[in-house]
Design a protein that fits this description.
The chain has 70 residues and is mainly alpha-helical. The chain is 57% helix and 6% strand. It contains 5 helices and 2 strands. A two-stranded antiparallel ribbon has the order 1-2. The chain is globular, with a radius of gyration of 11 Å.
Amino acid sequence: MALTLKFRNSDKVKEDIAMHGESIAGFSRRIEVNYSLMIEYLNGKKFPSPPTAKKIADGLDVKIVDIFFA
């Protein structure tokens, strides 16, 4: 069984991306996550793998547990 990581608050993640001065597309490019998948993660249609969740958290300078719960 694969671990499912869900955003605690995807609107807060979108806000944090903006507060870093980036668009979602720019953020996705910088952390090397496919833009379409990033949108699906933020909309709750798909859930990132733990390595991808780490990329997202690292890109926002936070810990995984700060923005995700299992």
